[in-house]
Amino acid sequence: MRTVLLGLLLMATACRRPSTQFAAMLTPANQVDITDYSKQLKAGDELIAMGNNPAWSLTINSSKGVLRFKALAGDSVNTAPPERQTDSDGVFRYSVGTAPSRLNIVFRPDSCVDKLSGQRFDYRVEVDFRGKSYVGCGSSLLQLTLLNDIWVLTDFQGSPITATDNRKEVPRLEISLSENRVTGTTGCNRLSGSVKADTRQILFGPLVTTKMACLDDANQLESKFLNILANPLTYRVSNGRLTFMQNGKAVMQLKKVD
After folding, report:
1. Where is the DUF306 domain (predicted)?
2. CB 109 within 8 Å of CB 92
3. For residue 77, what are the contacts with CB-CB under 8 A and spacing of at least 6?
4. Which of 8, 100, 215, 223 has its CA 20 to 30 A from that of 19?
5. What is the pTM of this model?
C-alpha cells in the first residue's frame, strides 16, 4: 500500500512540475551578454560614459541640446554640448566653459571594460574638470540608431533572394531597439519577438510566428532564416545595408527600405 501511495505522489509531482527536458525548451539555448540601451535610445542619447573611484557619468544628447556630467565627488555640469573636435586617429573631444571650471572630454577608440559591472565599451574616456581627472569607459549609440529601420533580405548565405511564384514576398525585419521589439515576415509567416543589440552584437528572440503552410522553397528559406536569427550575430551597417555575421563570415545581407 505504501508503495502505491508513493507512486501516486511521484506522479502528481511530475504533473505539476515540467520535466528538465521541457524546461530547457523554454530557455533560449544561446545566451549572450548584451547591454540593454533601450532607455538611452528612447531618450535620444548619443554618447554615454561612466567610471569609478569616484563614480561619475556623462551623457551627451545633441537633439535635446544637453551635455550632462555628474560625479559622486560633487562635481557636475549641465550645459549645451559644444562642437565635436575629431582627430585623424578616431579620437574625438569636447571642451566647454572657461578656466578654472573648463570641462575637457576625450573619447579614445579602445576596448574598455568597466571593472564593477563587467560591461564592455568601445572607448576609453578621460574627463578633466576643476583640476581633477576622471577616467572610465564610453560608447557611441549612433550606430544603434541606424539599426532602427525596416530591412528586407537581399542575400542569404551567398545566394541572392528575390520574390518567386512560390515565395510571394521576401523576409523582412522591422527593428525598434528603443522598444526591444522586432516584427516582420519570414517570407511566408509573420514574426514578432524581442531584440537586443550593443555596438557589436545583436540577439533576436524568442521569436513567434504565425502557422501558415509554406510552399517548398519558401518553407526551406523560412526554416534557415529563423535558425540563423536564433543565434547571437555580429553586424555591420553601411550605406543602407545591414550585414549579419557569424564567426566573422557574412550569413545574410538586408537592404533598408522606406
Report:
1. 146-254
2. no
3. 67, 68, 69, 70, 96, 97, 103, 129
4. 223
5. 0.77
Could you identify the residue written with the cell 533580405? Answer: 153
Mean pLDDT of each 10-residue bin along the chain, 258 residues long = 43 36 35 82 95 94 95 90 92 91 94 89 95 94 93 95 75 96 94 94 94 81 94 94 95 94
Chain length of the chain: 258
* Distance from C-alpha of 242 to C-alpha of 256, rounded to nearest angstrom: 8
32 vs 29: CA distance, rounded Å: 10
Structural contact between residues 157 and 151, judged by C-beta atoms closer than 8 angstroms: no
| Cα gap 193→180, rounded to integer Å | 8
Nearest to 236 by CA among 205, 199, 182: 199
Instruction: Record the cell numbers describing residue 68, joined without a space.
Output: 550632462
CA atoms within 13 A on the CB side of 207: 28
